[in-house]
Design a protein that fits this description.
The complex is a heterodimer of chains A (about 450) and B (about 190). With about 450 residues, chain A is mostly helical. Chain A contains 17 helices and no strands. The longest helix of chain B has 30 residues, at about 160-190. Classes of the chains: A mainly alpha (about 450), B alpha+beta (about 190). Chain B: Keywords: Membrane, Transmembrane, Transmembrane helix.
Chain lengths: ~450, ~190
């Protein structure tokens, strides 16, 4: 038994800190994209927000739709490492660390994007020092900071025994990494007292992250729902956002599972069965989201009242119709149909389907933010032609791609620094299942 | 070979300046416009409120009324002056004119209205502005208590219930986070 466990530990630790030329090329490519984004941001800082296509009508562009997207992605942490864990879903534990890493990376980039959207980022702390507690923006700032801290703790605490393993077994890695593992391991020795404390704190975090995760995306939806604009004036917006976020999160983790399994050769730990089960969860979450989608559009589309009607017409058959139907059909309805069949849940197939869901979800955030802003209730007289349309400038695209590269960079570095599969948890579950089979 | 730079004084600037001074002094000394003596009183017959204005000018020996003079009357509002009366309120041969005031103008908390009397662009009288007050407005009492604590008030006047809710949520969640950090410290010390 011990020999088998040692083999498992060695295999799972083998990816940590190992030099890999392909990984280096990947990191350099991400850094190049981030550098281009930094240059675009430098231009934005130097010349002002005028370099973007945001004007008086569309004052929230792709920065904010990207922010909503990242907040949605970050909810995956609470789904896998909390909801599934508390429901004692045993097959999901190899995915907990991946989901938490994605959650941390996404929420960091969401926070950064908000600062990028500010015309005067040097005044960011004024938001906290002089912020009005009545404003949903302040609630959002508070809940994002809280969720970031909880996500980091939820990633870090259950990882303590594995960091201790890295500290004790990885003697070939660089000195700074050894020091890092030593500091982060918090003197972990697998003592009963330490195990008890870890179990207690992990359970508290797993419970606490659920309401905070619901709060973060509900409050993000309130940023829109409390602003008087067509398409946002809806009581449905909170659950609509949360359900969409869970669907997106599940799609993101499937895409991540596929590439991580392939890159780190983890076929023994992330099996085809994991894809099949995540596929079933994704079908359920997509159906819930579809239900909220119908609720969101049916009422206004049936009544077609005033500017709400104009907004709906623009989405259904106007300027944004192509994007809207692409989001609804290949981004939501077709994936549900395909994933219902077992073949649709095979690793490669479901990765492609999840990618479509992911793309659909990004453009869905675009459709939530931009068309609504182009229908202000107080029109400005003799507006400039540029106010009436919104096509993001190259600076906005560069910064958006850089934010994606930033998420991927954080994920890649964390995956390289720490074991991807929770080792101690894996061994514990293996031992337990063997004990049960012996008893039978 | 030396280069010479010649500096020519700009006399035109100095000349223009003196010309300007001369015109200014000339305007003041030789101006035909004189100051006027303006008498006004408020006539209130319940239904009809009027401002009676009489304008005089110093004659050779005594005051003489100013005939055919346009007078404007305004009520000060929040952002601008509201004109009242007719478009032209012209004095008669006695230098007298009456301007009717609306009786439904909102005033301050005591009903005071700030009035502005103006004589502008008259032939023989200098531009004159007189500020005065009359208690002919409808008293408007702002309910300050209602504005005090509300969702739309400044940050210092946030609703107590909201403050209580948000702060207790924050205290609860961050209290747990601090407790977890303390537990991490105990794990390290174990």
């Amino acid at each position: 038994m011990k020999k088998h466990n040692d083999q498992v530990i060695d295999k799972l630790l083998s990816s940590v800190g190992r030099h890999n030329p392909a990984f280096k090329i990947w990191i350099i490519a991400l850094l190049v994209i981030i550098s281009i984004g930094c240059f675009a941001y430098y231009r934005q800082l130097r010349l002002g927000l005028v370099v973007t296509s945001m004007r008086d009508y569309t004052s929230w562009g792709i920065y904010i739709s990207n922010f909503v997207f990242f907040v949605a992605v970050s909810l995956i942490g609470s789904l896998v490492s909390s909801i599934l864990k508390l429901a004692k879903v045993k097959w999901s534990y190899p995915l907990t660390r991946i989901s938490e890493i994605i959650a941390v990376a996404a929420i960091i980039c969401a926070a950064v994007i908000i600062i990028v959207d500010m015309g005067r980022p040097d005044r960011f702390f004024n938001v906290i020092i002089y912020g009005r507690i009545q404003s949903p923006i302040i609630w959002d700032v508070l809940v994002i900071m809280t969720y970031l801290v909880i996500s980091v703790l939820l990633l870090y605490l259950p990882m303590l025994p594995d960091i201790a393993l890295c500290r004790d077994r990885l003697k070939h890695v660089a000195k700074w990494k050894q020091n890092l593992y030593r500091i982060l391991a918090l003197n972990w020795q697998n003592k009963p007292g330490q195990l008890n404390r870890l179990k207690k704190t992990s359970t508290i975090l797993e419970i606490m992250v659920i309401p905070v995760a619901f709060a973060i995306h509900t409050i993000t939806s309130w940023l829109f729902a409390t602003t008087w604009r067509p398409g946002w004036d809806s009581t449905n917006l909170g659950p609509y956002f949360v359900s969409g976020a869970f669907m997106l999160g599940a799609a993101v983790i499937i895409v991540a599972m596929f590439f991580i399994r392939k890159s780190f050769k983890l076929e023994d730990f992330i099996t085809n069965d994991h894809f099949d089960k995540m596929g079933k969860i994704l079908v359920l979450l997509s159906l819930v989201y579809l239900y909220f989608n119908i609720n969101e559009y049916l009422g206004p589309a049936f009544k077609m009242v005033g500017v709400e009607g104009e907004h709906i017409t623009e989405l259904f058959s106007g300027d944004y119709a192509a994007m809207y139907w692409l989001v609804q059909v290949p981004g939501l309805m077709l994936p549900i149909l395909l994933m219902v069949f077992k073949r649709g849940r095979k690793p490669f197939n479901i990765m492609i389907i999840s990618f479509f869901i992911l793309m659909g979800a990004w453009f869905k955030r675009f459709l939530i933010v931009i068309p609504s802003l182009q229908h202000p209730y107080l029109p400005i007289q003799d507006v400039d032609e540029s106010y009436l349309h919104y096509y993001p400038s190259w600076e906005e695209w560069a910064i958006t791609f850089a934010s994606f590269a930033g998420v991927l960079l954080i994920i890649s570095l964390l995956l390289k620094l720490f074991p991807i599969i929770p080792i101690q948890e894996y061994i514990h579950h293996q031992d337990k299942s063997e004990d049960q089979s012996n008893e039978i | 070979m030396k280069n010479f730079i010649s500096i020519i004084p700009q006399y035109s600037l100095i000349r223009n300046f003196f010309l300007f001074l001369l015109l200014l002094v000339g305007q003041t000394v030789f101006s035909q416009k004189q100051s006027a003596e303006i008498h006004f009183k408020f006539l209130d017959d319940q239904a009809d409120k009027r401002v009676a204005i009489q304008v005089f000018q110093q004659g050779d020996s005594a005051l003489k009324p100013v005939e055919e003079l346009d007078i404007s009357l305004y009520v000060e509002r929040l952002f601008s002056y509201l004109p009242v009366g007719d478009r032209f309120n012209t004095t008669d041969e006695n230098g007298y004119v009456e301007i009717h005031m609306p009786s439904d103008l909102p005033g301050d908390s005591k009903g005071n209205l700030k009035l502005i009397l103006k004589i502008e662009d008259a032939e023989t009288i200098r531009d004159t502005i007189i500020h005065t007050e009359v208690k002919w407005g409808i008293p408007v009492i702002y309910d300050v208590t209602e504005e005090k604590r509300s969702l739309w008030a400044a940050r210092a006047n946030a609703p107590l219930s909201l403050l209580l809710l948000v702060n207790s949520l924050l205290l609860g969640v961050w209290g747990i986070i601090i407790y977890i950090c303390y537990e991490m410290y105990l794990i390290k010390k174990e």
